[in-house]
Design brief:
The strands form 6 sheets. The chain has a 6-stranded mixed β-sheet with strand order 2-3-1-4-5-6, with helices on both faces. The protein has a 6-stranded antiparallel β-barrel with strand order 7-8-13-11-10-14. The chain starts with a helix and ends in a 7-residue tail after the last helix. The protein folds into 4 domains: 210 residues, P-loop containing nucleotide triphosphate hydrolases (Rossmann fold, 3-Layer(aba) Sandwich), CATH 3.40.50; 89 residues, Elongation Factor Tu (Ef-tu), domain 3 (Beta Barrel), CATH 2.40.30; 112 residues, Beta Barrel (Elongation Factor Tu (Ef-tu), domain 3), CATH 2.40.30.10; 151 residues, Rossmann fold, CATH 3.40.50.300. A hairpin with a 3-residue loop joins strand 10 and strand 11. By secondary structure, it is an alpha/beta fold. It contains 16 helices and 28 strands.
């Protein structure tokens, strides 16, 4: 057998209504294939005997005490076993309706599924919900296991009726199961070997069907995608590496490959591939957590996606169409902010439109302005910043997402379309700017060491006639006297200088003035200077625009100067005029030291 075959693996989810026998089926599969640790079966049987409790194969999976006490699976358990063809990870997802979000989390990692229906109890609402969720997550290979036929004397008629009823439902979803298999998990019928008690069945066993599932395109053969988890800087013993760390979702990359980071569109080349207490590698592929050094000194942050420059680019937009499954106690509704998570990306979003709400148990369609608990919907989502993803037919691994509300995952889904946003053209220009930006041979760390400071944009705003300019100029003078490289820029210098060709009255022109201010700031920050700017009554929209335009947005420090914040802006510091400018400047200087902009002597 080839090495490639030995290394083949597949994630398979097992889903179904509560008490339909999923855990029993997995436990029996593990036992009958000899995949259990030595002595495990005997120990569990002995524990049951001592507690005067009938043995069940599901106990082999119930590692959590409260799971055994309640008799339900409450989390997605991962079970490992292998056949002659490949290795499997079976993801056992909960069947109880209260734990539907764990199903979304578990099934999102699968490329095939086993869906269990209790022949004695029949098709339940969750039997329908789960199949819809699998389809929504892009899982096409589904084997339906009609379980507990031992309770119906292995009736062919019972099996055929459930198959017919479920086929009629799935046809509405345009889903055709890969197979229907009559089984008894408890008795082990048709799991590993063909049952003699159902001679009317001429198909495959569950184990055979697992091996018949087709592996999707190997993740290493897809486009390279790696969400940036963090950037680590080393300084000890002359080590000046900056390691970009993350887990490779798909594709493969090698030293010397040209790379891009989305959504910033910054470019560089792989210099080395790093591992913790591991030798240097020349290449790395999907499934590995790793680190990279690159040839250019770039400011990167968590949430960027690394791609190979020679491969097709992902989608990037701040407006998407998606299919979602909502699990929150409170409805998903408009004019409320949530968090979308894809990989390491965490982006604030709002519900723009509910196109259709679908009852997953009967596929009835409703027109609503919100999505209630356990409902499926086709929606349009509006994001505060651009999101990087692939469409499902390109790479389903990077098209699935979850929605977080109040620190809890309450929804999940898949992106179906990238929609046009009013700011897309503007962002496209920013990406081209970032790609074309000519970097100096002197990087920002060298300048920081030389000047004994970090560059930043101190943006001072507030109401009219509160002394903002006097404060800004006094701060500039103090920093200059302390030997810092600093410069004060009043907004008037932009409005009547670089912006003299556009009118002040038009709101669109106001945005253009903010953009030009940011472009000036980019150049000055790149020089290593501390830039101090004043502007009256800036809003959060202004701040977001400036932050988005900056090459290094983390270098922005917004300050409100005055007694009361009178706009919706979120500032780093709120500084009052205490009638003693020296004292106010001293306080601000201490804050800059705490922020790591200027270093304490």
């Amino acid at each position: 057998m080839s090495q490639q075959k030995l290394d083949e693996h597949m994630n398979v989810a097992i889903v179904g209504h509560v008490d339909h026998g999923k855990s029993t089926i997995i436990g029996r599969l593990l036992s009958d294939t000899g995949s259990l640790p030595e002595g495990k079966l005997e120990r569990v049987k002995e524990t049951c005997r001592r507690n005067s409790k009938p043995f069940e194969y599901s106990f082999l999976l119930d590692a959590l005490k409260d799971e055994q006490a309640q008799g339900i699976t409450i989390d997605a358990a991962r079970v490992f076993f292998k056949t002659k063809k490949r290795k499997y990870i079976i993801i056992d997802t909960p069947g109880h309706i209260e734990f539907l979000k764990n199903v979304v989390t578990g099934a999102s990692r699968a490329e095939a599924a086993l869906l269990v229906i209790d022949a004695h109890e029949g098709i339940q609402e969750n039997s329908k919900r789960y199949c819809y969720m699998l389809a929504m997550l892009g899982i096409k290979q589904i084997a339906v296991l009609i379980n507990k036929l031992d309770l119906d004397n292995y009736s062919e008629e019972k099996f055929s009726q459930i198959k017919q009823d479920y086929d009629e439902f799935l046809a509405q979803l345009k889903i055709k199961p890969t197979a229907y298999i009559p089984i008894s998990g408890k008795e082990g019928e048709n799991l590993v070997s063909i049952s003699q008690k159902m001679p009317w069945y001429k198909g495959y066993t569950v184990l055979d069907q697992l091996d018949l599932f087709e592996s999707q395109k190997d993740p290493e053969d897809r486009e390279f995608r790696m969400p940036v988890q963090d950037v680590y800087k080393f300084t000890r013993n002359g080590d000046n590496r900056r390691i970009i760390a993350g887990s490779v979702i798909s594709g493969k990359i090698s030293v010397g490959d040209d790379i891009l980071f989305y959504p910033s569109n910054k470019r560089s080349t792989i210099k080395s591939i790093e591992g913790f207490n591991a030798p240097l590698q020349s290449s790395v592929g999907a499934g590995n957590s790793t680190g990279f050094t690159i040839t250019d000194h770039l400011y990167l942050k968590r949430g960027e996606t690394m791609i190979r420059a020679d491969q097709p680019k992902p989608e990037i937009t701040s407006r998407i169409s998606a299919n979602i499954f909502w699990l929150g106690h409170k409805p998903l509704e408009k004019q409320k902010e949530y968090i979308v998570k894809i990989g390491s990306q965490k982006i604030v979003m709002e519900l723009e439109e509910v196109q259709t709400v679908i009852d997953a148990s009967n596929l009835g369609q409703m027109k609503k302005d919100r999505v209630s608990r356990h409902e499926v919907a086709e929606v349009i989502l509006k994001l505060k910043s651009p999101i990087v993803f692939d469409l499902p037919h390109v790479n389903v691994l990077t098209s699935r997402f979850v929605i977080v509300d109040e620190f809890e995952i309450w929804g999940g889904g898949i992106i179906t379309q990238a929609l046009k946003h009013a700011t897309d053209d503007y962002r496209e220009r920013l990406m081209i700017r970032n790609y074309k930006w000519e970097r100096s041979m002197i990087d920002v760390d060298d300048r920081a060491e030389k000047y004994n400071q970090k560059s930043c944009l101190i943006l001072i705003t507030g109401d009219k006639a509160v002394g903002k300019k006097n404060f800004a100029k006094s701060l500039e003078k103090r920093l200059f006297q302390d030997g810092k490289f600093t410069y004060f820029l009043g907004i008037g210098s932009v409005l009547y200088g670089l912006g003299a060709d556009i009118k002040l009255s038009d709101q669109n022109n106001h945005e253009e003035h903010m953009r030009r201010l940011s472009e000036i700031a980019n150049i000055i920050l790149d020089s290593g200077a501390i830039l101090i700017v004043t502007a009256t009554q800036l809003t959060q929209v202004d701040l977001d625009l400036i932050r988005e335009t900056l090459v290094m947005p983390e270098k922005l420090i917004p300050i409100w100067f005055g007694d009361k914040v009178s706009t919706d802006i979120h500032v780093q510091y709120h500084i009052y005029d205490e009638g003693n400018m020296d004292k106010t400047v001293d306080y601000t200087k201490r804050k800059l030291q705490e922020h790591g902009i200027i270093f304490k002597p």
